[in-house]
Each structure stands twice: as structure tokens, then as C-alpha cells.
Amino acid sequence: MAAASYRGGVRHLVRRHGCGAAGHYGTTLMTVTDVSQKEWRRAAAGAVCSSPQPGSRPVAGRRRRRRSRFGFTLIELLVVIAIIALLVSILVPSLSRAKDLAKGVVCASALRQLSFALTMYTEENDGILPSYDLFTSSPRLWYQFLQLQVDDDVWQCPSEQPREINWNELCYGYNAYLGYYTADGSILTQKLNMSDITGLADRLALADSNGDTVYDSYLDGNWAPVGDRHQEGGNVAWLDGHVSWRLADDLFVPSWPAADEEMKRLWCRPGYAAK
User: Fold this and answer.
1) Range 6-11 average pLDDT
2) Which single residue of 35, 176, 178, 237 could bond 115 by disulfide (Cβ 3.0 to 4.6 Å)?
3) Taking CA 11 as the corner, what is the angle to CA 62 and CA 50, rounded to the nearest 5 degrees?
4) Domain chopping of the chain, boundaries
5) Backbone region of residue 185 per phi and psi (left: phi > 0; alpha: psi in -120 to 50; beta: other values)
6) Please, which contacts does 52-56 make with residues 24 or more away whose CB atoms are closer than 8 Å?
7) What is the pLDDT of residues 32-58, one digit of tens each?
8) CA 125 to CA 139: how far, in whole Å?
9) Which H or E element spans position 226?
10) Hey, which bits of the chain come out as E strands?
């Protein structure tokens, strides 16, 4: 009963005189009764907390606002995770294709430089195209004639592992029908002059090798075909100097006797250079 009466007294003081009144009259109230200091503090706390000051907001309201700031629910988190997974599944293949396309552009740039070096070689040698002369005591391979005109990194296709610059591992191959002759005058396929060839824009000169490290510097359309490391095709440098991408299957010749006229012209088969 004493505690209850003093709680009422404190509340009355706070309502009439403000929170400071409870402290001012606290000593007097405690001397009149046997209420302990602990009971007095509880009564004062109850009075202050239950008596809102002007401009203040209810404690319960603040608690509700704090609860509204808490994290996502489990369903919301699952929805976000599902959306992220969907976006990743859409974007990753696109990014992979973009990366492959970028490598193909770098490869085409390298072939364009090699094509320019090939043109320079023919101009310095009265129009004669270089040879793929391997089977002699002093081999004279086409890329050896061009190495002095380009940097070593030009010989590396970004879609392949680093390769050695040799006849077996080169990233790019040379059309052996343009020139395969020895220093003593023996001709294995042809010894062509640029002036002997018509329609240079449709004649294959250099292209991606197939990457099997077997005569990779050599191309003939049949057992040494154009590679398919760039989206099932390869970059091709044509005799007029331009570079384009072609589907590897479109340049493959299963059998030369059964090949059509257009394919024989493209590869400059013997007798078809001037056609």
C-alpha cells in the first residue's frame, strides 16, 4: 500500500511540476514512510516513463519503427537469390561469346600483318610467292622469309596455347599450292608469281591451322585443313590482303578429284591459278 501511494504521489508531482519535482520532494516523501530507496526509485521511474514530455513520442511507437527496419524475410531472400541465378545464367554465355569474339579480332589482326608481310616479300622478289620447301638439306619455309618483317607475338593466336615458331606447331598455315619448290628448281606443287593469278580476293593465302601440331604451318584443304578454333571456323587472309572469317567445313575438301571448280580455284590448284 505504501509503495502504491507513493507512486501516486510521484505521478502527481510530475504532472503538476515536471520531472524535477520528483527529485526535489523525494527526500521528504521518503522520510515520512518506511518505503525503501529501491521502492522509491521504482516509483519514480514508473512516473517518469508513464508521463510523456511535450514533443516526445511514445516508446511503443519507436519500437514498432525499429522492428520495421529488420532484414528480409526468408521468402524475399529466396526470390532475390533466384533472380541473381537467372541473370548469371543469361550473362555468362554472352560474356564467354564476347571473349571468343575478341580473341578472333586479335587473331584476324595478326593475319592481316602476316598478309602485309607476304605482299612485301613478293614485291621484293619480282612477284614470286614464298615456298614451303621442307624436305631438303636446307629447308626454306615461308614463315622464315616473313619473320624479319613482323614481331614474334604476331605468330601467336590468342585462342591457342603458346606455340613455338616452327613448321610443326605454328598457329597459322600457308597454302602450299601457292609455292612448294626447292632451291635446285624442283617443283613439288607450283612456283607461282602474283601476276599469274587472277581474282586475288578469292584466293586463300594464309589461315588458322587446325592445331594438331602436325604440319601446322602447311595447308592444302584436305589432310591439312583450315582450323575451327573460332566458333567452328577460322580466319583467312586472302591474296589481295583482306582477312575474313570462314566456316572450316566450307573450306574442307574431302577429295580433290571430286572437288568442284570453285574450290580448286580457291586453293589455286595446279592449272586453276589463272582461271
Assistant:
1) 49
2) 237
3) 10
4) 2-51, 96-266
5) left
6) 53/19
7) 444 455 554 665 555 444 445 555 555
8) 18
9) none
10) 172-175, 179-181, 187-191, 204-208, 218-219, 233-238, 243-247
